[in-house]
Amino acid sequence: MKKYLKIASLVVVAVIFIGTFVFLYSKSKPKVKQYEIVSSEITDLEKTTVATGKVEPRDEILIKPQISGIVAEVYKEAGQTVKKGEIIAKIKVIPEMGQLNSAESRLRLAEINLKQTQTDYNRMKKLYADKLISSEDYEKSQLTFKQAKEEEESAKDALDIIKEGITKKSASYSNTMIRSTIDGLVLDVPVKAGNSVIMSNSFNDGTTIATVANMNDLIFRGKIDETEVGRIHEGMPIKLTIGALQNIKFDATLEYISPKGVEENGANQFEIKAAIRVPDSVEIRSGYSANAEIVLARVSKVLAVPESTVEFNGDSTFVWVMTDSVPEQKFIRRQVVAGLSNGIKLEIKKGLTIKEKVRGAEKTDKDKKK
């Protein structure tokens, strides 16, 4: 019995020894690497850049008052269309007391002067009829009377302008009626009835009554990095994507590149503008964020491979070309001449044919099992 137990123990030890040896041998044996095989193809490539920005009208007009006062009425709201000359709001003039007193005093003096000159004129008129004075003296008195009458009317108009902002003679040209200067869409009306407003002059920008723009003439305004600004030029076509209008691309034409860059986050950015062509069936609002895709270079029907299969060493470019696949994969490293890249695929100008295949990424254990 003891003999059998001894033999069994030796067998178990031998099995363990052999298993350990086999395991260590298999671990020390180098694994055969397997790679994905990629075929080259004939395709079209484009190198593009994307500029971020927003859509806005080419011109936004700020409507400002010609006089200071209080908003009496507002006739338009944001989103409504207006015609040139159409009234947007009405201003009620609040006279300045010093100017008001001066204008009233001027009118009183003009009325006193007119009354006196009228009396003198009537006297001279009677004397002229009786042929007691010359025609020259009569004409002088007549002229003085007309001048006094004109001064009274002028004083009345000045007082009306200070009190009401208009005169009876110029009611149709009243500065109290704030009118649109263009045909367009009202984008904003930042004032309400009762708000105080001040006129625009050389010392003050004045209060904005409304913002009006022609929404049929829209532009994209964005920025592009200095590394790519040298590759673009006015007149280039642009594809515009608007975040609020997904799945729609708009055609645009680059029409402006800023001659001066502005530093942002450590990089120089140059402003660009592009005219947008908008179909009649689409409504675009001012301020929409947008991305402009600009084609920097384009090639057609060229040999290309995935850029991930290419090795870069200084100014040289290499690919691993498959020479055999049985019993195991074999490759040869070959220098090629690269061309345009779109970030995914790279043009191969020389060193590779359409029939040849190149080495891709190494397969994982999961890939090998498939």
Task: Describe the 3D structure.
The structure is a single chain. By secondary structure, the chain is of the alpha+beta class. It is 27% helix and 40% strand. It contains five helices and 21 strands. It has helices spanning 2-28, 97-129, 135-164, 226-229, 365-369; strands at 35-39, 41-57, 60-63, 69-74, 81-82, 87-92, 177-179, 184-188, 196-197, 210-213, 218-225, 237-242, 245-257, 262-264, 267-277, 289-306, 311-313, 316-324, 330-341, 345-350, 357-362. The strands form four sheets. It has a six-stranded antiparallel beta barrel with strand order 2-11-15-13-12-16. Helix 2 (97-129) packs antiparallel against helix 3. The protein is rod-shaped, with a radius of gyration of 44 Å. The two termini are 52 Å apart.
Helical residue percent? 25-40%
Structural class assignment: alpha+beta
Determine the N-to-C terminus distance: 52 Å
- Order of strands across the widest beta sheet? 2-11-15-13-12-16
Order of helices and strands: HEEEEEEHHEEEEEHEEEEEEEEEEH
Low-confidence stretches: none
Question: What's the overall geometry?
Answer: rod-shaped
Largest sheet: 6 strands, antiparallel, barrel
Give the strand tally.
21
**Content of β-strand:** 35-45%
* Gyration radius over CA: 44 Å
Mean pLDDT across the residues is: 84
By DSSP (H or I, 4+ residues per run), the number of helices equals: 5
